From TrEMBL:
This is Glycosyl hydrolase family 18 protein. One of its GO terms (molecular function) is hydrolase activity. Belongs to the glycosyl hydrolase 18 family. It comes from the Bacteria. The chain crosses the membrane at residues 21-41. Residues 267-596 form the GH18 domain.
Length: 596
């Protein structure tokens, strides 16, 4: 009996010792479970963090507005002035409508249509359309310091553009310049749009059942999330489980682009430039055209930029024009920026509205006075600074040419990265013809001898131009001249003057241009033999005289035939040539095989 009692006491003491241990164990399990639950909850439960609208839209001033353009958040801002959204002229040109032109010197904003010039002055509620005054209840253009701002409402008058200004909490404006059918989706239950695809990403805004979202992107990269734009201007991600029925929304442009009419000849143009350097040269026109065959168009070099105010020098002759018309040849008089390049500045002439319009008026007045059929623009000293003014000049000149039935043609270098700013695409809209100067592959200043116009180089120039300009507007120009290259070894003194960083060039290279018959005589005199070069599509010859090596890639009937054949191959508007007097008479028979 006593033993049993002792056993009971021992068991009781054991149970009393085990109870605290069990409690500790349970407590540990509960703590671990709590920690695990917290971890899992933290990992898998959606974040309730909200991103500040100011942080998202990066708006820091009360008169600033974020810009959403064609469903993209832009890194530039609009400005709110008197309750209207404005953008800078740079934004206008780069993103909304490059046909606007801002004249910062004379504080004018211009826009050209095919037949009208529209001008808005800074700080005025009025603007002019073809010299007729119009008024708005807002100010189209405002200036703050060196920055000009243009009202979106004014831009919208001449641009396919819609916009919505939202001012709740943060200013933002949603702009569309691209129209058509957009994919939409309806929200089927209340949810959130987040900054990134993931439940831990901050919430941008809430959406409610029945709301319409605009679908921007559905990819496997973000799993069961879809990139959307909300009606209140947020671009973010929403889980697919909140999305219901898909749909479409079709929008149309608010603006109908005007039609740019052009003069187009119903024949293949056979054109050539006639270099006229003084009034006496005009008297040789009959002799000049008598040596041609099938010539449809002649371009005498008659007009020269004279000063920075838009005035011109002229060598125009009515007798010359009359002779050409009697021979059924049109006259497209050329204007150039080369002769007085040391005393004029293209930028000064073209960037200012007053000088640019004076130049337009002077050219049109001469065209009407001398009954010219066309004007040929040959500006070869345009740079990136003067490029916008140059294109605006062509737009404004095209208006007056269009109204007066005058053909506008523009000479262009072969397309290359360093001359893209000539904006051939816009030229192809406003001008009647674009002429590719398909020569000067190697020019007077080249450091190595080479062809003036190898066939593949010419072909590539045509193909690059046709990416921007319709074939029916493109005229390809060929050279009637050849460069005779002279190479002589550098003297020890010349080599000693060179820097160690200079590329090693052993020879001094120079060249001179010759007509076809003259170069043949030079080669015959020096006993040089011509061999056909398949790569350039030309005859090549060289000879040595007085310790110098002479090289030439010839332009003659066979090389010109290859270039003329490209006119038909690419269905171009025609051919031109620089310059009359350098050709052999037989060359016209060659050209006529392809342009007849």
């Amino acid at each position: 009996m006593a033993t049993t009692k002792r056993r009971r006491r021992r068991r009781s003491r054991g149970r009393r010792k085990a109870a605290p241990m069990l409690a500790v164990f349970v407590l540990i399990v509960l703590i671990l479970a709590g920690v695990m639950f917290a971890f899992l909850y933290e990992k898998y439960s959606p974040s309730k963090e909200r991103m500040s609208w100011n942080t998202y839209f990066e708006v820091t001033a009360s008169d600033e507005a974020a810009v959403i353009l064609n469903d993209q958040m832009m890194d530039f801002k609009a400005r709110i002035i008197d309750g209207e959204p404005y953008v800078t002229t740079d934004t206008l040109y780069d993103y909304l409508n490059s046909r606007f032109y801002w004249d910062s010197q004379e504080n004018l904003l211009l826009y050209t249509t095919p037949t009208e010039l529209i001008t808005a002055s800074v700080g005025s509620n009025t603007y002019t359309v073809a010299k007729q005054s119009c008024m708005e209840d807002y100010t189209p253009v405002k200036v703050d310091g060196d920055t000009a701002y243009v009202a979106l409402k004014y831009i919208q008058k001449y641009t396919g553009l819609t916009y919505e200004l939202m001012t709740d909490e943060v200013n933002r404006v949603n702009i569309k310049t691209e129209f058509g059918t957009a994919e939409t989706v309806t929200v089927k239950k209340n949810g959130n749009v987040r900054y990134r695809a993931g439940i831990k990403s901050p919430i941008l805004t809430d959406v409610s059942k029945g709301d319409t979202l605009y679908v921007l992107e559905e990819t496997e990269d973000v799993g069961d999330w879809t990139k959307v734009r909300t009606s209140n201007g947020f671009i973010g991600y929403i889980r697919n489980k909140y999305l219901g029925q898909k749909g479409e929304e079709t929008t149309e442009s608010n603006y109908t682009e005007p039609e740019y009419t052009n003069i187009s000849k119903d024949y293949i143009i056979n054109m050539a430039w006639h270099q006229v350097t003084n009034g006496d040269a005009n008297s040789k026109v009959l002799e000049t055209i008598a040596n041609t065959k099938g010539l449809t168009t002649i371009s005498p070099t008659w007009f020269f930029l004279k000063d920075d105010d838009g005035n011109i020098d002229s060598l125009a002759s009515q007798t010359y024009v009359n002779y050409c018309h009697q021979n059924n040849i049109e006259v497209w008089a050329l204007v150039e920026d080369i002769t007085h390049k040391d005393t004029i500045t293209d930028y000064e002439i073209l960037s200012r509205t007053s000088s640019r319009q004076r130049l337009v008026s002077n050219l049109i007045a001469k065209a009407i006075e001398f009954d010219l059929d066309g004007i040929n623009i040959d500006f070869e000293y345009i740079n990136e600074d003067s490029a916008k003014g140059y294109v605006e000049f062509l737009r404004e000149l095209s208006i007056m040419c269009r109204l007066n039935g005058i053909i506008l043609s523009v000479d262009n270098y072969r397309p290359a990265d360093h001359n893209r700013f000539y904006n051939r695409e816009e030229q192809g809209v406003v001008a009647d013809y674009l002429i590719i100067m398909g020569y000067d592959e190697h020019y007077a200043g080249s450091e190595e001898a080479g062809s003036v116009a190898s066939i593949n180089w010419v072909r590539e120039g045509i193909e690059e131009t046709l990416k921007e300009v319709p074939a029916e507007k493109v005229i390809n120009a060929v050279p009637f001249y050849t460069r005779l290259w002279e190479e002589r070894p550098k003297t020890a003194e010349e080599l000693a003057q060179e820097s160690d960083t200079d590329d090693y060039v052993p020879n001094v290279v120079s060249s001179k241009a010759y007509g076809m018959d003259t170069i043949d005589k030079i080669l015959a005199t020096n006993g040089a033999e011509k061999t056909w070069d398949e790569t350039t599509g030309q005859y090549y010859a060289e000879y040595v005289a007085d310790g110098k090596t002479y090289k030439v890639w010839l332009e003659e009937e066979e090389s010109i035939a290859l270039k003329a054949a490209l006119i038909k191959e690419y269905n171009l508007a025609g051919i031109s040539a620089w310059k009359l007097g350098f050709e052999r008479q037989d060359i016209w028979d060659t050209i006529l095989k392809y342009v007849n």
